Write a sequence for this structure.
């Protein structure tokens, strides 16, 4: 409800006109629109005391104009449309504006005067005046926030929401508890402290209003970029985060250095979680940090566009899933400012400058040390363009973002609710692709469109088969196995890797000529051609053997896919998550049902065999059978805290398949304290030596 303030004309208004309109729609939505963005009840009438015993007068209109502000609104309508007001005033409202005390005025909902007021405020002049008055409020709120040191667009709008709900005193109180520089995230964090304040249960951040605050936060983040809304603004934000250190717990997330720890708690994960996406708190956060920067600068809608994702297909917390979301046309071997650099050891950074043969990055979850992928801080680093650990650069078109408004609102995006879409006049394939969260090239290929610039009205397009989950597209199982075909292969021509054997199946991406893939002996024959089940990067899929040249039985350096699991105390849910990870890691083909049957038991061994092939070049057949070669390959090897390898990934997955929570799954895995604890718990449950080190006996027990 709008507090009683005097409407003034300000000479300076920091919000763009578009952001001011967004803020008005947000306030309307939370006041009278049922928390549905863009919805408003212009003829709202709320009697005194309905919301609080402290309310002594009526509240009217879409913006919940209370007491004397209700009077100001009605006087404004009368002044702007005197004849229209007079025609609708059948109950003496004009007289009441002069003779009544509006701090106590309430003729009662349903009364003739109330009905008359509703007709007046719902007239065309009434609606227009409500919008103008709300804009005046917003200007005054923003001016107050600026005077208190707030400058960021998103933060200013969150402040406007706070003052509209609780007045300027509430705003001052919240800002006093917020960490500087003020951001929407730090303000939201300060708001939540009201829930621990027992002095009052009616403060702006209390649970009574929390659903409202979450909605406002979500809408601002989705629809509004930061102050700059540009590549330079993005780099400035990244520079400002240098020195931020991950936390030991969820406390002091907004402080750069307080609560220092190694538990992977960050404000970045918290803020992404608050948007309803997977921020993966307490998990490795290099990728989440980069997406957070995009959201802060451009808003959620544009950030998702930059990452070629939608809310339902968001995988921005995972390095290689982020890479694979970018179309091949946006992956480059050359750095440019603003691009994401993907490293082959499962790490990602942001290019902030390029100088000939070197470039500088700002990275999360690193340290000043070279190649550190789990250093726990934000740091600036330098690399050679020819560095062997660089996988690729992901190019983002910032010009397209900044050429429009600074708002993150996508504007003009087609809304599609199903798996098919009938082309309408004026549609473009790029707009349809954006609505489905895929590249234009991919959508064209999937629908057999030769020229992406030519589509016909009435043409029915099918949505590509991308899973809206944290895992990659579901891949079919191979029909046959031949150990003699296992090995490393070189791609002889640009080649699609597909979700099944045959050209009719979904393309998961394109592999460039000269790249290497790994096959472990699995294939399916289609019309006399063997389609090999291969791994390329973190993608598992089928490629035609016509375009593969065997390079010998050497181990591939490819990285199996992994997603970060949700924490859970349920053994069955842990096993289900482990089954999903086994499918990603070694194409186990399991049904994620949480039941350890014969197929899952076999998959355990496949996980171990795949990891030993990757780490030890064991050359094992990934057959799920613990034979003499598997045992011999395992003997003499251990994994322990501080190590990074695929055997750590295997340990994480195997613990999950046994119902123990390793506190995360990575590829390659990093052996941290959470994994050590889970290892000890498993060893104790099996009567093994409890040392937190996984050796022969521990692994054999895990796969038994």
């Amino acid at each position: 409800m709008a507090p009683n303030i005097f409407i003034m004309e300000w000479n300076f208004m920091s919000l763009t006109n578009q952001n001011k309109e967004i803020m008005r729609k947000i306030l309307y939505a939370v006041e009278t629109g049922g928390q549905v963005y863009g919805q408003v009840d212009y003829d709202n009438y709320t009697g005194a005391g309905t919301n609080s015993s402290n309310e002594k007068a009526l509240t009217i209109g879409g913006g919940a104009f209370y007491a004397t502000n209700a009077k100001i609104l009605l006087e404004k309508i009368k002044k702007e449309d005197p004849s229209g007001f007079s025609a609708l005033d059948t109950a003496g409202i004009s007289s009441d504006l002069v003779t009544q005390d509006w701090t106590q005025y309430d003729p009662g909902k349903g009364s003739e005067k109330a009905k008359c007021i509703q007709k007046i405020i719902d007239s065309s002049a009434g609606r227009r005046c409500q919008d103008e008055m709300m804009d005046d409020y917003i200007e005054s709120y923003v001016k107050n926030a600026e005077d208190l040191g707030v400058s960021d667009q998103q933060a200013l709008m969150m402040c406007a929401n706070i003052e509209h709900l609780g007045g300027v005193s509430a705003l001052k109180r919240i800002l006093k508890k917020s960490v500087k520089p003020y951001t929407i995230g730090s303000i939201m964090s300060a708001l939540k402290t009201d829930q621990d304040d027992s002095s009052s249960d009616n403060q702006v951040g209390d649970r009574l209003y929390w659903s409202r605050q979450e909605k406002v936060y979500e809408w601002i983040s989705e629809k509004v970029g930061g102050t700059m809304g540009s590549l330079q603004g993005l780099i400035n934000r990244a520079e400002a985060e240098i020195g931020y250190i991950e936390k030991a717990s969820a406390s002091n997330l907004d402080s750069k250095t307080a609560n220092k720890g190694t538990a992977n708690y960050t404000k970045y994960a918290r803020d992404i979680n608050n948007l309803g996406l997977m921020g993966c708190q307490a998990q490795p956060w290099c990728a989440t940090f980069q997406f957070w920067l995009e959201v802060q600068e451009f808003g959620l809608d544009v950030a998702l566009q930059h990452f070629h994702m939608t809310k339902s297909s968001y995988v921005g917390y995972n390095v290689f899933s982020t890479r694979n979301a970018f179309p091949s046309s946006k992956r480059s071997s050359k750095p440019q400012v603003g691009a994401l650099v993907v490293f082959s050891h499962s790490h990602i950074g942001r290019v902030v400058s390029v100088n000939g043969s070197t470039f500088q990055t700002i990275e999360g979850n690193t340290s000043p040390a070279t190649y550190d992928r789990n250093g726990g801080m934000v740091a600036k680093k330098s690399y050679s363009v020819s560095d062997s650990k660089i996988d690729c650069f992901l190019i983002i078109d910032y010009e397209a973002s900044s050429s429009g408004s600074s708002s993150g609102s996508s504007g003009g995006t087609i809304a599609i609710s199903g798996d098919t879409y009938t082309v309408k006049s004026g549609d473009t394939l790029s707009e349809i692709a954006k609505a489905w969260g895929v590249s234009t090239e991919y959508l064209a290929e999937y629908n057999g469109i030769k020229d992406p610039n030519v589509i016909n009205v009435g043409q029915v397009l099918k949505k590509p088969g991308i899973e809206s989950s944290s895992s990659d597209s579901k891949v079919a199982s191979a029909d046959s196995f031949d150990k003699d075909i296992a090995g490393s292969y070189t791609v002889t021509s640009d080649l699609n890797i597909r979700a099944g054997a045959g050209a009719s199946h979904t393309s998961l991406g394109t592999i460039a000529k000269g790249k290497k893939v790994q096959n472990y002996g699995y294939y399916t024959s289609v019309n006399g051609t063997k389609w090999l089940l291969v791994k390329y990067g973190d993608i598992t899929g089928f490629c035609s053997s016509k375009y593969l040249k065997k390079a010998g039985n050497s181990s591939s350096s490819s990285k199996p896919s992994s997603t970060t699991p949700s924490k859970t105390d349920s053994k069955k849910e842990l096993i289900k998550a482990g089954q999903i990870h086994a499918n990603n890691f070694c194409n186990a083909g399991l049904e994620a049902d949480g039941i350890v049957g014969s197929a899952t038991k076999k998959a355990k061994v496949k996980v171990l065999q795949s990891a030993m092939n990757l780490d030890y070049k064991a050359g094992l057949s990934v057959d799920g059978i613990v034979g003499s070669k598997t045992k011999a390959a395992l003997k003499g090897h251990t994994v322990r805290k501080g190590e990074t390898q695929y055997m750590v990934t295997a340990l994480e997955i195997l613990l999950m398949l046994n119902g123990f929570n390793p506190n995360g799954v990575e590829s390659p895995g990093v052996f941290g304290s959470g994994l050590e604890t889970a290892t000890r718990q498993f060893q104790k449950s099996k009567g093994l030596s409890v040392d937190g080190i996984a050796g022969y006996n521990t692994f054999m027990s895990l796969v038994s």
Summary: The radius of gyration is 29 Å.
